[in-house]
Structure to design on (121 residues):
């Protein structure tokens, strides 16, 4: 007795499901990566804005235009911008600061930092 003839592609039953699952996993991985890149880029912009403002606040305080200490002014402004002052150095009306902000994404949380300088000339 001979076996009944097989239809073309009969041994590949279910392979479409495996392919769809694989493509879904790849798409999800790409989505997480794009989300992380976007979150870090947005955090970088926030960090730079906070650093610029904190450096300017410190320089104004260093020049005597504020009543508080320069680095205290920088820390207060950074905190108002949801940033954390990491470094602050003032000298002769100039200020250099470094701040960090969190970057939240589906892949996790990162700290993004930026630095800035402000002062005359």
């Amino acid at each position: 007795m001979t076996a009944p003839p097989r239809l073309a592609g009969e041994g590949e039953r279910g392979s479409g499901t495996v392919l769809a699952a694989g493509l879904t996993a790849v798409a999800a991985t790409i989505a997480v990566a794009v989300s992380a890149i976007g979150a870090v880029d947005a955090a970088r912009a926030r960090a730079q804005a906070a650093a610029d403002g904190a450096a300017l606040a410190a320089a104004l305080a260093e020049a005597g235009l504020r009543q508080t200490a320069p680095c205290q002014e920088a820390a207060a402004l950074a905190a108002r911008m949801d940033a954390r002052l990491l470094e602050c150095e003032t000298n002769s009306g100039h200020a250099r600061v470094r701040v960090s902000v969190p970057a939240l994404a589906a892949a996790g949380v990162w700290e993004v930092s930026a630095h800035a300088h402000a002062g005359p000339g």
Q: What stands out?
A: The chain has two helices and three strands. Strands lie at 84-91, 94-105, 108-118. The chain has a mean pLDDT of 88.
